[in-house]
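Bumping with the actual sequence this time:
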Amino acid sequence: MDIAKQKDILRREARERRAALNAAAPDAAWRVAENFLAKIPFEKNSIIAGYIAAHDELDPAELIAALRARGHAIALPRVAAKRAPLEFHRWEKNASAAKGAHGVLEAAPRWPPVKPDVLLVPLAAFDDEGYRLGYGGGYYDRSLLALRAMGPVLAVGLAYDGQRIADLPHDDRDEKLDWVVTEKCVRTFA
């Protein structure tokens, strides 16, 4: 079976598992925020790119609020074109996000563009090597590749601990995460 088919099967299973984990851990987002702030090394004036949770993704809203309170600029991604890297735009506190092409809330195109220093990454699953299983569009992999070509960027997956799969299929288009933060622990892949 080729990698794409393996990923499709794993993606369906991972979404079902994530829905159950979301229902079983109502305080997970708060615990992830605590773990991130206590363990992830990043500069004081870093621009942090987050996301607005969709479906049963781990919600980074509490973490984003805490990072804002500490003076960090916050950005949101935007799908500007199919098969292209995401664009990142500064998200002012009271600005309303726009509904994107895939039905998720994202940055409005009129917001100022920025290059994030830290990228909070949603995922369906992650493995022990730092690979993530996304949703099949390749947007975060292309974005990480492009951002890393411009300079350092810290990629941090946010997940429920139960989203871990020992070994995910991957190829040369898959970008590794630097860290994964869950409600139970922080893992590094550096």
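The tokens above came from a reply further down the thread. The two ends are 30 Å apart (CA to CA).
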